[in-house]
Amino acid sequence: FGNLYICGNQDLESLDLLVGKMVYTTVGTTMDLFKYILDANQIEYVEGSQAIENKVTLCSKSDATEIIQLIKLATTNNEFACGILGEPVVTKALGMIEGLKINFDLQQLYGNISGEINYPQACLVAQADFCNNNSAIIDEIIESLSANSDFLYNNLEDLPAIFSEYNSSLGGMSFTSDTIKRSNIDLLLPVDCKEMICDYVYALTKIT
């Protein structure tokens, strides 16, 4: 589920303080979610590469690595910078940039608007024929995913080696219990979260 945060090198107590500033973000649903939040808070925004007065400027970047490097460079130059990052990349950024702060929790901001406790960040889909013919495999996958959060909390020190074994970019970083908490790991079956998914998709279709 949702694991997105706005991280910057200055304290920001309200979204209004982003007006006149630029926010780095990846494109797609990440940017659309932030647009939805800004719309709901009656904050105007534009897409661009330069900050302008009276609006939040959304500057799209290819990935989180690029955003981290831009915030790090700005911090070195004593300039303001912030961007939207997801865990566990947030933890990686906190270790790379001195004084980096988690300014806003997008899950909380979305919940303040929608009344939902969360929104779907990722899902697993499979063809109906496969599910019908391999029910034992599906049950095993569900069982493993259900235990995922507990496994991560109980194996923090082993996670870098596990990720390295699968050639993951997360292999070189350290994990804390806060990393796992902010990653917002949970498992819900479609029958239990259909309304949440529909509300989320509908909300993003209202982006102007």
Keywords:
208 residues; six-stranded mixed β-sheet; 6 strands; 14% strand
Describe the global form.
globular
Mean pLDDT over all positions:
92
H-E string? EEHEEHEHEHHHHHHH
The order of strands across the largest sheet is: 3-4-2-5-1-6
Measured distance between first and last alpha carbons: 25 Å
Number of helices: 10
Rg, rounded, reads 19 Å
SSE-based structural type: alpha/beta
Count of distinct strands: 6
Strand content: 5-15%
**In percent, how helical is the residue content?**
40-55%
Main beta-sheet strand count, sense and barrel state = 6 strands, mixed
* Low-confidence residue ranges: none
Structure in words:
It is a single chain. With 208 residues, this protein is an alpha/beta fold. The protein has ten helices and six strands, in the order ββαββαβαβααααααα. The protein has helices spanning 29-40, 64-76, 89-96, 106-114, 128-133, 135-146, 148-154, 159-165, 177-183, 190-205; strands at residues 4-8, 22-26, 45-47, 56-61, 82-86, 101-105. The longest helix has 16 residues, at 190-205. The chain is globular and about 60 Å long. The model has no long low-confidence stretch (mean pLDDT 92).
